[in-house]
């Protein structure tokens, strides 16, 4: 038993038994979460290593086939990241790894500005240069820019231009190294995560924040459902490669596979069987009704009949968010504090 | 207001309950009666009123100074107008803590302080050093050079540059970066684009941009003057409205509604404002994004290089609300029942901790200000965030960390005062 619990039991015997049950469920949930997130990080490390290898291979021998392999390796790694992106505590906070993987949103097109500097400089682009270049350079959006930006692809700097290849291989190496570090640090973090009761709430809040970001920032805002009502594909993730919706789907699947089982364990231990079932059902319904994920969101935003597909998805996701962020949070006594979305 | 957002919550390094230093609180001298939640909320409204009054006074001085510049475009008058702008920022930045939680402020402030802006909407920019928001059809509209504008399929008559017209042009074409009004529009009209990147130096707009006849540089000097006149008039009018909202003895204003509602609601707004500005806005959007992305596009006062002061006085505003004090621009001290008094009644150790953390934040922000204003080796915020500037990064990071730490204690204070949810719940209320 945890020392704090022992203390509680000594002073308040009446509440002791429920505390013990709750604690067993907490430990069970955290054990599951740790393992699930570990496997998420391992996939990311594997896919990012593959991306780095394929990038080098392409630059050594640029053929249409190797280009295709490169683009699909980027997508695999990007989706692996989307599945585990919701984790916003623990080792991913070190050196700001989360922002390094994906600096987003980027309304001022910083990625283009930084790329144009790196592609235009006479200095060699070494690993050290990438290390020093800030989060807009160090992750998925930069590689996506190098691979998919229309303007760049029409210029003399388009891949496989030497300088572009230098940036591409250095950035993918950087991502591969970061993802390996992250997976290893998550392993080392295990005892602390399992021993520290606060990580129960931290993990639940991470899932809640991810759902809120999905609903508000990745769907409602680009769909023009907020603020000034303008539809704007540029504020989605991965708009350059047309993979925004695949990214959304990957995040939901990641939450379903990694986050949901622990959440259900806790809800059921607290007697909230019906709510647990409704949440499980709603996750299934979002993934089952997911619109054709291969359609770029730009197309869906531009066509009113297609837009309805997005509206349906939005409604499904909002219902899920309400169930988790309102009902489950109250049932589990999770109080949300300040987070970075409190700004404007 | 911009909806910039970065999804990674800053670490709430919930510090161990350490007795980290004891702050000396000169204003805590023997209050006549113990503070109550109601008296604290009442005094909060008094603080807000005094702060907005000062913002108004200094905005009127700015309006007068820009009128002189327009009438007589001399270097001395340009310098005086810039000084007046800098002085106006001091009280205004201290009011930002009233924004979050008080919808009446949040819905209004975009017209005054929206950023970052695509300044090409307003006036000329250097094409090769101007990065605007993706998909913004108005990013290079140049209102000053045009009598008609076509933005996103909409054609607008902009021949007469009036305050009302400029207010309507905000977010034209649906882009939040289309900021036609407020402090940053005035800042751009006084300083111009900062073309120095990470190097020292702010915008260098020549005074001849307001000159008459053939002395006029960059064209349309008269319209530029009309724009500056209209935008400063609007700023004054907007602040007059907000001062009235917080004035005592008016049954129909915001203060009356706030003080008539439950005191817990008011306390929650106070804490929510402090925490939101501290963590999400100041530490996150205004410092961490700029630093981690090495992005001077994300610098708050980017034309004038006054960002250090904007940050410093934001921090001061947070401390003002907690301690119930405000040093007015004329030197008078406003003080009264405070959150600090309430927390001290409930948990003296937490009160001491939060007070010392607020002091530590002001010290870290003060160091940033001192470096930026150093006469020997000035290092402005846009230089601090340059790639490879480890000293600059440390200065900014220390300020971020201090703000993150104090936010953890603000959350604790909320719990201590029985405020469970910090999300503003205004369902069923008119504000």
Keywords:
heterodimer; A: 344 residues; mainly alpha; A middle domain of Talin 1; 71% helix; 0% strand; globular; disordered N terminus; B: 431 residues; two-stranded antiparallel sheet; 53% helix; disordered C terminus
Structure description:
The complex is a heterodimer of chains A (344) and B (431). Helix content of chain A is 71%, strand content 0%. By secondary structure, chain A is mostly helical. Chain A folds into two domains: 36-196, Up-down Bundle (A middle domain of Talin 1), CATH 1.20.1420; 197-334. In chain A, helix 2 packs antiparallel against helix 11 (244-269) and helix 7 runs antiparallel to helix 9. Chain B is mainly alpha-helical and 431 residues long. Chain B has a single domain (31-416), classed as M75 peptidase, HXXE motif (A middle domain of Talin 1). The longest helix of chain B has 35 residues, at 37-71.
Strand portion of chain A: under 5%
Assigned CATH class of the largest domain in chain A: Mainly Alpha
Distance between the termini of chain B: 18 Å
Number of helices of chain A: 14
CATH architecture of the largest domain in chain A: Up-down Bundle
Overall residue-averaged pLDDT value of chain B: 89
Total number of domains of chain B: 1
Oligomer: heterodimer
Which sheet architecture does the biggest sheet of chain A show? none
How far from one another are the termini of chain A? 43 Å
- CATH homologous superfamily name of chain B? M75 peptidase, HXXE motif
The residue-averaged pLDDT of chain A reads 90
Secondary structure: number of strands of chain B: 4
Q: What's the helix-strand series of chain A?
A: HHHHHHHHHHHHHH
Question: Structural class given helices, strands, pairing of chain A?
Answer: mainly alpha
Which range best describes the helical content of chain B: under 10%, 10-25%, 25-40%, 40-55%, 55-70% or over 70%? Answer: 40-55%
- Overall outline of chain B: globular
What name does the CATH topology of the largest domain in chain A carry? A middle domain of Talin 1
- Could you tell me the radius of gyration of chain A in angstroms? 22 Å
